[in-house]
Design a protein that fits this description.
By secondary structure, this protein is an alpha/beta fold. The chain has two domains: 29 residues; 252 residues, Vaccinia Virus protein VP39 (Rossmann fold). The protein is 35% helix and 15% strand. It contains eight helices and eight strands. It is globular, with a radius of gyration of 23 Å. The N and C termini lie far apart (64 Å).
Amino acid sequence: MSDRTETAGSKTDGLVDRIMRRLGTRFSEPGRGNPRGSGVDSSTPTAPPASPDELYRQDWDALARADALTAILSLEPGAPTNEAAFDAAGRGDADRLRRFVSAESVVLSVGCGIGRVEKHLARHCRRLCAIDVSDEMIARARQWTAGVSNVEFFRTSATDLSLFPDDTFDFAYSLLVLQHLEYEDAFLALREIARVLKPGAPALVQFPKLTSPVYAAAFAQQATSRDRSSARMRFYTRDLAEQILSLAGLTIVEIALRAHGAEDPNELELVVRRAAERGKPGGQVASPPGAATPESGPESTGRYE
């Protein structure tokens, strides 16, 4: 009986050990040294595995040092992005966001990179707070936006916006960012966005469509190449985006349309809002007083159904 019990326990220990190794840690019980008998003293301190946020930081620091512009915005496959095109794209995105802000708005940018959009949007609001996980990106952002006095940059993770109190922002946006987070981290980031938005305030978020032929091919190539870097792209179906947003406490009220009135074939770009009371559905987004009208920018919007 005692032999069978010991064998069963050994099998369980081995299974737990394998599971924990897959999770990036080594299983050991406190105070028992090395119960597995592998010849390695598990009581010896070892460096803990890097956190997801640290891995994001390392990857994006490296990408920023190599070529920040192309890492943020790749306009031509295989070709570097030049400053003029990069700046023009930032101005265009800022123009699209103007309808959500007024001269009194306090705005949050989640995943600002080097300040591509912030350089142009800041002049239309009172204060713009921009966060990024990368020290290198933040340093370049301060250079890129030199002379813009009302934008502030903070080095922190999208999953932790504890720098900011609840109900702080009139508008938040995140472009070309959530796709580079694990799905669980995207949920955490969206939940933080919901927390720091004022009741009923809107946010604009963006997801790459797995149903797009372009992104479907990119997904297959990424999978085949075994790219598992933290900065790789994660692709979304509409159902997945809806579910994660709902779990994060955000309600979809609009789907952004291009100037010709059609949905972007590659990007799912959604206007969401935090409910007036947490956990309750939101309604239609109204432009703040003094904000630009949708017709003033290159895109219009459609109600989400």
